[in-house]
Each structure stands twice: as structure tokens, then as C-alpha cells.
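Backbone-to-sequence.
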């Protein structure tokens, strides 16, 4: 058995990274949640090895008293339960104190959304915000590709440049858990990609300067634009477009992609594939769009509705 909370955490994080091919963001999220739990236990002179079900439940009550969101509490309990399941299977503990604990049920809130007109305003803003041509070309490419594909932010900013070579109709994306999927590009997205690539290729300073492996390169350690930088960029674009920046984020555009496709008749299974959802249950949050569309069709097309009755009367000779 590894000694100390730190060693438990290190071994567990190494295991999930190796077994699940978990992303860096996932690993960091687990580390934060489990470190918070370890600090709570330490204050009670306990650790992962000695904690019982009572300590876990006390931690959940403490989280609620501190005003932590329901989703945060549910996520942290999930991390704790997975840690103890792993510890039990590895033989570090003879019991699994988290197995029977039921956490708060997470409410499935409808995602925020943008209308098609509002998305158009954002796209227009992308072409005018930057102080240089390079920034404007990059921002336009980012927004066009995001709205055309519904990529996750991490998938977008880390796109390899080779994925965009050759004026592709579709691009290969590596998503959560290492799963790959193909997503189609709209004509505006392809045009924005071509313009951005032309700028990148023309911007080489001499024949020996290596090209970046990423489509959206940056000078930082990761070599590409960060999620945080893109988040701030979208906020700036929202303000320029006259939208409420507090309600607009990269994830809002991902929701808009799915919502607009459904509103125009796309199948829910197709949306699941394009978004990279492992389960259709995750995609079903968008069924509110289908329900609204069905109500609209009934009110407009049913012969006994007011509009339908008027149309029927007009068609009657």
C-alpha cells in the first residue's frame, strides 16, 4: 500500500491516465477535488487510508454548508468514490467506504443558446476585433471552425495544422478518451481555414524556421492557444457584437451548433456523433429544441389549429 495521501493520489492519477488515456484537464480536475478532500480529512486527523463512510458524508455536508454548487458536490463525490473503488481493487483497503453513498442528483439545466442572428454578429466581430490582419484572420478561422463543427474548446485550440491541409471537407478530431471522429466543415469555415493557412505559410521567417505543429500556434509551453485565452477572446467578441458577454462563451457556440442543426431537422444521433458524446443521454439535453419544433408544427400544420384551419379554408374551392 502506498504511504500518505500524496502517494495515494499520485498512484491513482497515474493509473487513470494510463488506463483511460485521460486528458490533462481531467487529471487536473481529479487532483483538485481529491486534494480538497485530503485537506478536509487532515483537519480531522484522518487520511485516505483511515477515512470511513462517516468522514466522506461529513465532507459532503461541509461542502453544502460552504455553499458549493450541487454540480461541484456531485463531481467531488464521484472522484472520491472512484478513488476508493480503485484502492479496494488494488488491495490498499479491505473495504470501499464510498460504495453506498448517494450524492445529490445533478439537475440537467438547459444550455444557454444564441440565435442564428447573434452568431452572425459574433462572426462579423471576429473579422474586425484584432489590431492586425493576422489576428483578424485567426479569430475568424477560430469562430468559423467552432460554429461549423461544435468542437470542444480543447479540441479546437489544439488542432494539428495537418488536419487542415488540402482544403478538406471534413477534419479528423481526437476527443475525450482518445476517441477520434470526423466532423464536416462548412464552406465559410473552409474559406477561413484557407486564408489563415495562407497567412501562416507566408509568415515563415527564412527556410530553417520550423513550422508549428498546431493550427493556432502560440509561444507558450503548450505551443498552441490556450483555452483561457480563447475564452477571453470570445468575451471580447461578444462585447463588440453588442451581446451580453456574461452569457457568451466558447461552450455557448458549441450549444448553438447543436441547437441550430436540430432546429433545421438534423437527427439526434447525428448530433451525438458530431459532438463526440459517448452516450446519447448526454445529447438528449437538446430535445427541448425538438419539442419546441414539434409544438410549432402542430400549431401551424394541424387541421384543427387556428392557423391550420385558416389554411384549410383557403385551400377549399
Amino acid at each position: 500500500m502506498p504511504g500518505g495521501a500524496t502517494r495515494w493520489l499520485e498512484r491513482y492519477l497515474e493509473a487513470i491516465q494510463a488506463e483511460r488515456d485521460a486528458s490533462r484537464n481531467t487529471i487536473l480536475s481529479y487532483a483538485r477535488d481529491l486534494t480538497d478532500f485530503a485537506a478536509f480529512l487532515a483537519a480531522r486527523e484522518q487520511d485516505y487510508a483511515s477515512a470511513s463512510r462517516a468522514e466522506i458524508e461529513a465532507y459532503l455536508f461541509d461542502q453544502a454548508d460552504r455553499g458549493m454548487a450541487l454540480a461541484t458536490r456531485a463531481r467531488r463525490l464521484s472522484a472520491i468514490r472512484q478513488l476508493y473503488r480503485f484502492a479496494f481493487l488494488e488491495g490498499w483497503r479491505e473495504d470501499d467506504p464510498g460504495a453506498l453513498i448517494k450524492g445529490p442528483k445533478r439537475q440537467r439545466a438547459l444550455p444557454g443558446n444564441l440565435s442564428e442572428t447573434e452568431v452572425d454578429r459574433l462572426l462579423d466581430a471576429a473579422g474586425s476585433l484584432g489590431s492586425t490582419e493576422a489576428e483578424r484572420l485567426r479569430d475568424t478561422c477560430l469562430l468559423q471552425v467552432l460554429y461549423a463543427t461544435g468542437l470542444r474548446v480543447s479540441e479546437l485550440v489544439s488542432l494539428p495544422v495537418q488536419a487542415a491541409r488540402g482544403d478538406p471537407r471534413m477534419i479528423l478530431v481526437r476527443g475525450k478518451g482518445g476517441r477520434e471522429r470526423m466532423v464536416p466543415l462548412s464552406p465559410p469555415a473552409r474559406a477561413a481555414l484557407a486564408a489563415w493557412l495562407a497567412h501562416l505559410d507566408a509568415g515563415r521567417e527564412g527556410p530553417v524556421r520550423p513550422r508549428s505543429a498546431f493550427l493556432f500556434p502560440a509561444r507558450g509551453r503548450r505551443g498552441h492557444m490556450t483555452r483561457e485565452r480563447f475564452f477571453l477572446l470570445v468575451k471580447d467578441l461578444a462585447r463588440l457584437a453588442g451581446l451580453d458577454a456574461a452569457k457568451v462563451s466558447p461552450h455557448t457556440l458549441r450549444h448553438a451548433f447543436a441547437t441550430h442543426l436540430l432546429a433545421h431537422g438534423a437527427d439526434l444521433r447525428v448530433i451525438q456523433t458530431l459532438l463526440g458524446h459517448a452516450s446519447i443521454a448526454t445529447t438528449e439535453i437538446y430535445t427541448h429544441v425538438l419539442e419546441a419544433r414539434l409544438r410549432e408544427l402542430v400549431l401551424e400544420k394541424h387541421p384543427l389549429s387556428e392557423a391550420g384551419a385558416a389554411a384549410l379554408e383557403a385551400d377549399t374551392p
